[in-house]
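User: Here's a chain of 87 residues. Predict its fold as tokens.
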Amino acid sequence: MKLTRFTGHARAKFADLTALGLTLSESQVVDVIDHPDRVDEGHHGRQIAQGTLDESHVLRVVFEEADNEIVVVTFYPGRRRRYEGPL
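Assistant: Prediction complete.
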């Protein structure tokens, strides 16, 4: 299994989201990468893994993959209907 590293921006997202009332853990973010519901292509060769947060929200994780590590660039919650269509 590859080592997962978080950028400074990604680490700051934990506090930013907690201040908005959404507390997430590193393991939740890594779980979305390891077991995504879907993976989309991002900009500059990045990938976006998506997993379910709750009935109406998803967690999207932007990451880069190298031979020996996965680098989490950022992550963000989104409404399921935006990324999956109508429920």
